[in-house]
Amino acid sequence: MSIYQRIAVIFVALFSLSVWAQNDKPTADDAKAFQQKLSDITIKPYHQPLAATGRDASCQLCHGAKTPTTPANDSNCLTCHGSLDQIAAMTEPKSKEGHPEPNPHNSIHYGKDVPCSTCHSEHKPSQVYCNSCHLFKYPNMKP
Amino acid sequence: MSNSKKTLPPDSINNPTRRSFLTKGALLATGGVMSLTMAPTQAAPVTINVPETVTGGRTRFHQIYDVIVVGSGFAGLAAALEAKSHGLSVLVIEKMAVFGGNSTINGGAFAVAGSPQQKEAGIQDSPELMYQDMLKAGRGLNHRDILHVLVNGTQEAYEFTLKHGVRYKPFVQHFGGHSVPRTLQTVESSGAGIIMPMRQSAQKLGVIFKSRCKFESFIQDNQQTVVGLEVKENYYFPDENSGLVKNYGARYGVIMCSGGFSNDLRFRMIQDPQLVSDLDTTNHQGATAEGILAMLKIGATPVQLDLIQLGPWSSPDEKGFGNVSQFNTIAGYPMGIMVDARTGKRFTNELADRKAREDAILVQRDEQGKPVYPICFTNKEGAKNAQSLPAALKYQVAWQFDTLKQLADHFALPYENLQKEVDEYNTAVANGSGDRLGKDVSRAISLAEGPYFAVRVWPKVHYTMGGVQINPNAQVLNSLTGNPIQGLYAAGEVTGGPHGASRLGSCAVADGLVLGRIAGAHVATQTANPLFSTSDSDNA
Ligand SMILES: Cc1cc2nc3c(=O)[nH]c(=O)nc-3n(C[C@H](O)[C@H](O)[C@H](O)COP(=O)(O)OP(=O)(O)OC[C@H]3O[C@@H](n4cnc5c(N)ncnc54)[C@H](O)[C@@H]3O)c2cc1C
């Protein structure tokens, strides 16, 4: 499945969820406050296209049907970004020469087991967990 | 609090109707679709009447296991593997997003008395000699019963790690304060080389792991027996508002392997007010005190909590353990020298134990009390085993110089003093003994030839020798009675005693693995708590 196909599948799923959610009949005030809160939330530029169908749906894209009070579950990130193995392969240093930065997605300390949200954040600056002890530079990591 | 609330007779706990009802209820409560996908891992909670306790009578347990281990470092994994190998169901909880705590960022250096590598190198060693070394470094404050257990268990623990796929470098190293080279190191130069294979092994054997699951407090019955834990699932360190409170039951016992508290600024400063915030630590962020505090709260005996060790080999130019620490332990200290940045003169035996070196470095301050970072260096030959050197050079926390003069100029050291100091040291090296500061130079090398590699040094908070008291079975002892708190074990850095005033390098791996295994094996000798006398299979 291409990434676009995958996104399409997610949107279909989201659409059915939001229909289901409407049965809850939130009051107008609630809805306003909710919209206000949502528009205050940062969405990183590279994820903004995903918000095109309306921001409340895009919460569920990452957070699933749960009220988003915690970071997204990894499996939702991986729906679009590929498997852990694929991600690790993408950031594998091309050659071991010149002492390259180690692969953050397959590290000596944690292998491929680090949850995405340990480093990547959508609504606040991302931070490289490794750098609590190291001085690695990952220029391609989006802040 | 009373016992009189309506309770379930034991056999209705597993009543299928009740279970399916609760499962449905739980699904409705959490709002549907997502929980469906989690159904296989979340079975029905059971409510059990725990006889009147501090935590109240009726307690709803969401999950029940034979053994619950708190913490996923050396001690936790050793305990889990051992308990599992005795046929028990085991859960390991870890509050961080990642597993392994300090153990996986550790240097992978493991003191083993009588290893095959020592025999091959013709080095005579024994548990008794290791005991003497640790006692000396500990200034005699060591709890000797636990120390005995520790030194006698290293060989077996070494073999245990081999069995689980750990690989070591083919040579032994000489760490400060040890009378002979006895330190093995993983090929990865990191404790990850022990943690990763052990965790994979444990997972294969069926040990259950939960990360982002924080231990909060103990659940005890009216005999003070620990029968379970309150945890927060889905906890996002360090956000104390995150997480969902759950109760887990433990039929055989709970093993606390929650590590030390070097990164707990509040608690470490209470114990040693000198360890203020401008002293960095080598520890991971989760090295905090709540585990030990919870044990003290239910009566555990505190041991030497103010004995906190600084690592005397770290660098002020990088965070945490970084790359310099390992350069210094492998190269800088055994194969080079450290000098006062103002005088160019050596001021301590670079192979003394940690406390001696830490004390000597910490007084290197100017009139205003600001640190004057000492310089440690060796030459190319001395640095040949220092795997972290290329990275240290890359990030400019180590520097290379062709000549001593260049080195002196870079750090504004008085060159003549430095040259004299190096000459004097080289003479001792050539003679194989007679060093002015008493360093064992029998395996040292001459520093006559460049190029040189140099770093700046400043200690960091590294290890908390203190903790709770355990007996040789790793049972936590009650401070009032001296008897074991039933159902409660502890191992690793959260315990106090074996290291006394100062831990020798590479002895924490030994401590965690040896005592962790003992805890896991001993808990398996207990009988299952009749509170949970159900046939309920482990439901996670
Ligand atoms: C950078 C560094 C290098 C080191 N190098 C060496 C070396 O080469 N050789 C050596 O012998 N020693 C070394 N040490 C010391 C040694 O690594 C530690 O003492 C050892 O790892 C402690 O093991 P442990 O299992 O007791 O605790 P840890 O490995 O720290 O594990 C404790 C775990 O418990 C978790 N935890 C804590 N509280 C809770 C809670 N409330 N709920 C759930 N989980 C919790 C923590 O997050 C952590 O993952 C080093 C230490 C550091 C920091």
Automatic annotation (TrEMBL), chain A:
One of its GO terms (molecular function) is metal ion binding. SUPFAM superfamilies: Multiheme cytochromes. Residues 1-21 form the signal peptide. It holds the Pfam family Cytochrom_c3_2. It is found in: Cell envelope. Its main location: other. This is Cytochrome c3 family protein. It comes from Limnobaculum xujianqingii.
